[in-house]
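Reproducibility note. Readers wishing to regenerate the assembly model reported in the main text can use the exact inputs given here. Chain order matters: entities are listed in the order in which they were concatenated for prediction.
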Amino acid sequence: MAEPAPGQRSSLTWKLALLIAAIALLTSLFLGGRAARWSGSPVPAVFHGRDITAEHWGGAFTLADPEGKARSLADFRGKVVLLSFGYTHCPDVCPTTLAKFAEARRLMGAAGDQVQGIFVTIDPERDTAGLLRAYVPAFDPTFIGLRGTEAQTDAVTRAFHANYQIVQYRGNTLVDHTASTYIIDPLGQPRVVTPYEQTARSLADDVLALLRNG
Amino acid sequence: MATSWAAPAAAIVSAEDAWVRGTVEGQTGSGAYMRLTSSEDAQLVGASSPVAERVEIHEMRTVNDMMTMRRVDRLALPAHVTVALDHDYHVMFIGLKHQLLPQQVVPITLQIVDARGRRHAVQIQAPVRALNSMGAVHGSPSGAGKATPHG
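Running the prediction on these inputs yields the following structure tokens for the assembly.
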């Protein structure tokens, strides 16, 4: 048998090298993916809502609970906080949001114990401490309603980049307000903002992602 | 006026799945939700109920997640089209005279004007659901909400 021409041998060697490289690449991708899953190594959490980690919202607000005790985010360290702004005269959006918080907590099972629902009124004049004490726990007995002075309310909404406006319109006092939900991690840092349309399931997913990945 | 809104023998508008959100003691507002179907072109121009000082039709809009709610004077009810008052529109109770509890039934009178300008009063009975009801709204979780049917 005649030796293959040098050019042919070189071509075969290249094909073999390419094949080996391809197999190695596929194997490493496969094993790498599996290894990351097996080891449970921390990967950046991916949320349904918008990740606001880098934006440093929130800050140190002080509001009063229905018993008149001053509360800040530091009081809820160790829990994931679901926070929304609203008012008790709101017929639809605010109760639906609080109902979703309660449903998300139920969907999480035992991990739901690590969730704190907070409703901050943007209508403190009409939403008295007594009304908040009755209203907010009607959705979940662990949820808490907070209220502040006008200045405190302005400060806390500003800290969360939320807006509200009390409007007198045709004999009614209406309150336009941001209907988002803010998810705050166990260290007290706002991490995710979600739109009103968010489902209880996706809220629960985002809370679980925070509890799992920090 | 009760006389000018007398109910005819057969109501031109039918209401389905009407309900009112329950309240806690001290709450003076709430909302009612329903689906309306008219047998001819008509408009919903008002409402009343013995449980509230005023009942209005409100439109809700959400722009950049900012929720606004305003009273509207009329809501079109095209013939044979089911119009949902469940999210973008709802019936708003203002000045509730007492707490609304599940098991109670709230009478509501809808004021309808047909294409020929005739006035109709449509009586409905809306049961009270718990305050924390998800309601029939778009994007509601757990499958509780129904898609808004459009004819």
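We highlight two features of this model. The beta strands of chain A are 50-51, 63-64, 70-71, 80-86, 115-121, 144-146, 164-169, 172-178, 181-184, 190-194. Confidence is low (pLDDT under 50) at residues 29-41 of chain A.
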